[in-house]
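[job 4471] stage=fold_predict status=RUNNING
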Amino acid sequence: MKQYFLILLVGTLVLSACRKDEIDKFDGPSLTDIYGEFSVFTTFDVSLDSVNFTTGETVYFTAQFSKSVDWKIKITGQTSGAIKVLTGFGSSISQSTSTWIGEITEFPIFKNEICDVELSFLNEPDVFIDQVKIIGTKTNAGFLISDFESGFNAGWTTFVQSGADMDFQIKTDAFAPENNSYFNMAGTVDWDYLIGYVYFKASAYGAPHYPLSSNPNNEYFNIMLYGEPGTTNSIMLFQFTEDEDGNGGHSTASEDMYSQEILVNWEGWRLISLKYSDIPCLVNGQPAAPNGNGVHNSDKITSVNMLHLANPASGFAKSKIDYMIFTQNGPLKP
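[job 4471] inference complete, writing structure tokens
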């Protein structure tokens, strides 16, 4: 009988220990998060009424809830229509989870404007509204080739075919994804692929080469491209010429030129970012061996050539470009 009592006592202690471990170790969402009533303990708030992203200021949002929820903050520019979305999960929103540095989620880019801020939840009907005013837009580090706000640089070289409905010019209207202006390209050429081009020479900025580092893995070429609805035959060709012998010019026969061809077959604005070391050498659209040393010398680029092309049998072609910039250590995050 004593032996039976001892075994029963040990078994009871083991089971008790197991139950305690199981209580301490909790897997899955709490019953409060699943069945609890949702309410706001601390109201939705914006850290600043006005924010100057140009000087490095940031803005963040705060709120506290009765349970953990999926939340979404949508920021919409009243003038630009730009959108930034922040999302998260938890019982609170804090600086660490909601800091905004002025970047976008959807084009266009924010302007100096009043922005509507909306907080909503995945499975709750509650919506909270606030506002924040941008008094200085986000500054992007890098070498800006052009955002077309200052007109046409006299140092650029341009050519436009004498086709039909040709329209190669800077325009200022609501289509601009950044600030107010962009470069429009359109026309019909039925005898040649080339519709027109602009050569953005380094000499236009007062130097024989673009002011880039010698590491092509750190240099990114970025441009905003617009695909015209109903028109999918525009081809953008970007050429990067190098001066390997240091004489201040480029020799096609003995120095490298790298090229990227882009078929503009989408609608609306899209950001294209290219790591310089990934850009191939092309001849008639096909990969080929470069004529120079075969090394991507980003610090020796003499010109960025932009050619608007289309199959001559395809008819009218149209596209737009804006905000052409080199960035370092990563693609542009507008």
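[job 4471] summary: The chain has a mean pLDDT of 90.
[job 4471] exit 0
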